[in-house]
């Protein structure tokens, strides 16, 4: 038994890798939606019960080549759909800081395993905040890289245009070391064509005079008082380190959350069509193929059913223009707002989550309440820019994260500012 | 979509059928409130302009169309519920 067993942080334990290389000696947990050859990979779903991928994801192959020891597959909201890790078919994961609370999601098992000290680092995936939210809620570091920096080959897709694989660790330096290994071009993912870089070396360089933009839209009424206080202290720390802090306005962010959910659900409805019980996962019974597919897919949990159905609805004839077209236009406006602000500033700062971790069970029956918690993280995925959550302190004895966001492929600068903050705090 | 109609359980059942997700009547009823809350929230998008120009800073990544090593037939079939003579067995078409 280890701390993670009590927390239900792992779905499957394994022992893979562990040779020589830049990550020799590092123990790593891998989110259960990232393919690991011969090790059961369920995406937290009954639909993939028993599925053993016949190949490794590129990021897993690279971890193994670098000598990391992969010790298990971490629990997650089913197919990444959730903000609490409670929608997993394997039961909820608990927050190691306070076990009455959720660890955040959807990469909650990864965050809990790192925070409890059971692994040195973990891989999560971030479609709308799924690395940054649990990092913030468990008090660890989590990076969502630029879209296109890290290969998605072998990541079991939910919303291709938004999702990224990202590292999590207890400090910025370890996060950067894992990024060094997993980043960079991959012929098997046409969207991944960027060079990797020496991020770990870059984080220790001085930050210089940094300009930090704080959008009014991300620190407004939805933000808890305690979270706001911790965030203001964090801005004070950045100022003490020589940063200039500026308030800015990014009006498109008011539309970002709705645009995100329309796009993510739309993509989910087509992506998850492949789970029909024929090529993988338990098969269905019934009269004819439609009945048999619908029977196999009855194994989806409620949140996945909700998103697949809402996505189907939003993309159906007569509604497409009202939802999907509008959402794509809002997405273009969000991108432009980030570009304009990051032209004038080095990073955008906000609280990662507007609230402290929910109590277990608190948000599960109210989908909209759960979605609203993603207000500060989802705009980043629409824009495709890199963003990191670093521990900023506590409110009501629960962890609060500082979210820093930079321009496309500016991970070096981003991690340097994050490291500067981590050292000064 | 100013006049968005309220979704009822029949609408949920219709979408479930399109999405090939089997629901019981009770389950369909259980989704009604959440659907209406979320679709109501999506009305935030009503006043997004229709004439936003999409960026075109994307470029295609192409490669020569030459066969490369991939999964063997046996590996590709290794997780299937049913196989026969090297093929997947699917439900009957009727």
From TrEMBL, chain B:
A GO BP entry: regulation of translational fidelity
EC number: 6.3.5.-
Catalytic activity: L-glutamyl-tRNA(Gln) + L-glutamine + ATP + H2O = L-glutaminyl-tRNA(Gln) + L-glutamate + ADP + phosphate + H(+); L-aspartyl-tRNA(Asn) + L-glutamine + ATP + H2O = L-asparaginyl-tRNA(Asn) + L-glutamate + ADP + phosphate + 2 H(+)
InterPro entries: Asp/Glu-ADT_sf_sub_c, GatC
The keyword NAD belongs to this UniProt entry's keyword annotation: no
GO MF term (any one): ATP binding
Database matches in Gene3D superfamilies: Glu-tRNAGln amidotransferase C subunit, N-terminal domain (1.10.20.60)
Keywords on record: ATP-binding, Ligase, Nucleotide-binding, Protein biosynthesis
Top EC group: ligase
Keyword Nucleotide-binding included in the entry's annotation: yes
Disordered: annotated segments: 62-94
Function (record text): Allows the formation of correctly charged Asn-tRNA(Asn) or Gln-tRNA(Gln) through the transamidation of misacylated Asp-tRNA(Asn) or Glu-tRNA(Gln) in organisms which lack either or both of asparaginyl-tRNA or glutaminyl-tRNA synthetases. The reaction takes place in the presence of glutamine and ATP through an activated phospho-Asp-tRNA(Asn) or phospho-Glu-tRNA(Gln).
Family: Belongs to the GatC family.
Oligomeric form and interacting partners: Heterotrimer of A, B and C subunits.
Name of the molecule in the record: Aspartyl/glutamyl-tRNA(Asn/Gln) amidotransferase subunit C
């Amino acid at each position: 038994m280890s701390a993670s067993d009590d927390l239900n942080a792992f779905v499957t334990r394994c022992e893979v890798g562990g040779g020589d290389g830049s990550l020799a000696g590092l123990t790593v947990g891998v989110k259960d939606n990232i393919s690991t050859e011969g090790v059961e990979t369920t995406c937290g779903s009954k639909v993939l019960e028993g599925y053993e991928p016949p190949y490794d994801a590129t990021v897993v192959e690279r971890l193994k080549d670098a000598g990391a020891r992969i010790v298990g597959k971490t629990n997650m909201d089913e197919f990444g759909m959730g903000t609490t890790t409670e929608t997993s078919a394997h039961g909820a994961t608990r927050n190691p800081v306070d076990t009455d609370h959720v660890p955040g999601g959807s990469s909650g098992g990864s965050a809990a395993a790192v925070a409890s000290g059971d692994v040195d680092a973990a891989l999560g995936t971030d479609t709308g905040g799924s690395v940054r939210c649990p990092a913030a809620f468990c008090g660890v570091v989590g990076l969502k890289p630029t879209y296109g920096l890290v290969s998605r080959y072998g990541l079991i897709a939910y919303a291709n245009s938004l999702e990224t694989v990202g590292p999590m660790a207890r400090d910025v330096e370890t996060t950067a070391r894992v990024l060094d290994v997993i980043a960079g071009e991959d012929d098997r993912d046409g969207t991944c064509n960027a060079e990797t870089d020496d991020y770990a070396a870059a984080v220790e360089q001085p930050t210089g005079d940094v300009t930090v933009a704080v959008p009014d839209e991300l620190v407004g009424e939805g933000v808890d008082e305690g979270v706001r206080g911790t965030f203001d202290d964090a801005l004070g720390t950045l100022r003490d380190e020589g940063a200039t802090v500026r308030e800015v306005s990014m009006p498109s962010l008011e539309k970002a959350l709705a645009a995100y959910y329309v796009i993510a659900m739309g993509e989910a409805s087509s992506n998850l069509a492949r789970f029909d019980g024929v090529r993988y996962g338990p098969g269905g019974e019934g009269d004819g193929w439609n009945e048999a597919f619908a029977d196999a897919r009855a194994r989806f949990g409620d949140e996945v059913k909700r998103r697949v159905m809402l996505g189907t609805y939003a993309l159906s004839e007569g509604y497409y223009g009202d939802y999907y077209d509008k959402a794509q236009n809002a997405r273009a406006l969000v991108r432009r707002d980030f570009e304009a602000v990051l032209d004038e500033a080095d990073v955008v700062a906000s609280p990662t989550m507007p609230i402290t971790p929910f109590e277990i069970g608190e948000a599960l029956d109210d989908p909209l309440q759960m979605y609203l918690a993603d207000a500060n993280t989802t705009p980043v995925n629409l824009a495709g820019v890199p963003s990191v959550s670093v521990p900023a302190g506590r409110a009501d004895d629960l962890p609060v994260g500082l979210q820093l966001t930079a321009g496309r492929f500016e991970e070096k600068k981003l991690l340097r500012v994050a490291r500067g903050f981590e050292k000064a705090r | 979509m100013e006049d968005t109609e309220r979704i009822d359980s029949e609408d949920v059942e219709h979408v479930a059928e399109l999405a090939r997700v089997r629901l019981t009547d009770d389950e369909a009823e259980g989704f009604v409130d959440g659907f209406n809350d979320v679709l109501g929230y999506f009305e935030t998008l009503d006043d997004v302009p229709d004439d936003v120009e999409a960026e075109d800073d994307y470029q295609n990544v192409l490669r020569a169309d030459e066969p490369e090593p991939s999964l063997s037939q046996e590996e590709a079939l290794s997780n299937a519920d049913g196989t026969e003579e090297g093929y997947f067995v699917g439900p009957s078409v009727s």
